[in-house]
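OP here, attaching both records as promised.
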Amino acid sequence: MTTAAAPPQLAARARAARTSPVREILALTARPEVISFAGGLPAPELIDADGIRRAYDQVLTDEPRRVLQYSTSEGDPDLRAAIAARLARRGLPTEPDHLLVTTGSQQALTLLATALLEPGDAVVVEDPTYLAVLQCFGFAGARVLPAPTDSQGIIPDELADLVARERPRLLYLVPTFQNPTGRTMPADRREAIAEVAARQGLWIVEDDPYGELRYEGTAQPWIASYPAAADRTVLLGSFSKTMAPGMRLGWLRAPAALRRACVIAKQAADLHTSTVDQAAAARYLADADPDVHIARMCAVYRERRDAMVDGLAGALPAGSSWNRPEGGMFVWARLPAGHDATALLPAVVAHDVAYVPGAPFFAGAPDPGTLRLSFATHAPARIAEGMARLARALGGQAATG
């Protein structure tokens, strides 16, 4: 009788990978009675379901054989043309051939990691940073280095010192309405970071999923628009926040050689993004008025942001602090010294309300008192009820914001 050997092990990168704490928290808060400020979910009632349905109906009526067939890896030409036109109107001259359509901007990160990173390469991120990029770079076997930040994002002089010392391959950042902090980097820092990349041979991955969701203030230029960094900056975008996350449509704008490498990586991953979804998105952008729809979203989200920011004064313990983002979906808060947002979460969920602890977002030493709250999903009255529940859970009282 043959004795069976133990099953072969997973690859080292799979054994070392960690699951997403945010996804685990979302599973815990799936009960309908929970008011969850945990997920960065667009408000479902603000998704233009009727307009999107018409777009699908139209392309399936007019071109069923094309939109239900295999397509090119680069993406639907009409969709790339629409994206290029929108970028150009917002101040970044772009041709359709500069773009690659991806299955959500998360896939763009995976393609870039495949094209740019060898195991052991160093990458620099804001600290804290977008949680899923830590997973992505971890799977690639990269060393993730935290860049020093303040309330305006990465500090350029300290970034320059870090890059000179560690020689990383790339810098990843979300300069506008950052996830998780909601902060926006001013133009002078963006220009300084472009200069650091030019001097020290650094790729920049500039992720911009929230940029059109501005409620006040002045739009800042993309890092990709600065001449110093134009040949080494990849700009990522997504329709998940302004059209529908379920369509899983994103894109990357990159220099030609890198874009071609990403096309080849995409061919190995999924051949191409869904043909019919791309065609429907292109038709929606052509036939609907997306700018009017986005303006409506911004008006609604502005009220929700204000409701959350105003409500935190009574919801969090005395000595807490938080920001007031100019756009996006998130407020970043910090509890007083001695409070641990992760340890407090079970008691908070027991009161049928939830947030995301800030600790998992840090590439460096975490700040245990931090937490992220999303205001996008719930109406102001529901946010107010959530703040009341949070106050009961945390013993909130008048605090300083």
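Record two, same layout:
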Amino acid sequence: MNGEVPKDHSIDNSLALMQEGYEFIGNRCKKYGADLFEARLLGQKVVCMTGEEAARIFYDNDKFQRKGAAPKRVQKTLFGVNAVQTKDGAVHQSRKMLFMALLSPEGVAEVRKLAETYFREAASKWETMDRVVLFEEAEEILCKIACEWAGVPLKEDEAKERAEDFTAMVDAFGAVGRRHWKGRRARTRAEEWITEVIENVRAGELAAREGSALHSWSVYRDPDGQPLDAKMAAVELINVLRPIVAIATFISFSALALHEHPECKEKLRTEGDEYREWFSEEVRRFYPFGPFVGARVKNAFTWHGYNFEEGQLVLLDMYGTNHDYRLWEFPDQFHPERFRDWDGNLFKFIPQGGGDPAKGHRCPGEGVTVEVMKVCLDLLVNGITYEVPEEQDLSYSLVRMPTRPESGFIMANVKRVQ
């Protein structure tokens, strides 16, 4: 028998989730005065949780597994069917270790160097444009960076289309209707493209640099010693490329933060890389990225008086945990200096998942994300001057999942600093 754990007695909360978006779990936890509650989503009983303690429980591999947690509609858009995010045990650990190896400090440094080159070149082009939509420019640049770093051939005239496809996969995460189907079509095109590239590598028709992501996934074998079929290898390679392109969201939010908090500009100019890192981390904490993440109960257990049943779907509130007043002083204020004394707790700061990325399901690409954000901040503060036209919508919706500044952050009269 379950303890006195709040239950939302609505017949189904799916519509409420769509209407409240990022705040759905947090709203109810505040209403009930609890860190978890039971609800129904898409006809099934679901437990929703928030907070540091909930994150520690959620990322306990003895209690939770990812198998069966990601709906097929998410696998067919965001992750790819049977991708690493849906795996547990030895298969997950083996594939995750390859991601970790690719995104080692050396790998991150390579991406940063490419970012410095590509964004510096972009600034020259931006000077000739009447208006620059930063999100759109960033996604194309990041697609070029990702492909060059990974060793994937990318023609100049196809970069924009490929970038838009990667973005569409992410944009379909919480979407229904047109956005969802756009994401599915984008994934089909991307998988066909990368599958052909991998088949060409395996046939000896395309050289792949040893140690590159393309080479690594082309020759990878699961723990049973069997190679991945070309399509599955393509899915995992896309899981290297797509998240780098998705940094465009954080870049547009970084520009918005600069606009909304001009007092930070002088510190970014004078206090160097350390302050840029604090600023980047605060952007990731403050602005919305992932709303929540799901898993299924692996072994039944009891927590906070609630009996978690084997196979039950559980959602962890990422956005709410990053805005939890118990964990963050004045959480609804933008304050980069809060990271000066951050203790490195990987269960209170979960913008891209929680826990140790080497042992669990936290995104292994956070290092790349922060380094690329710092490069772009340096450019926006020290490399160029620009105007922010009033004729744009800089708001972002907490209902739309995922979200970003509505206008993509438009800049005008861009000039390089000589």
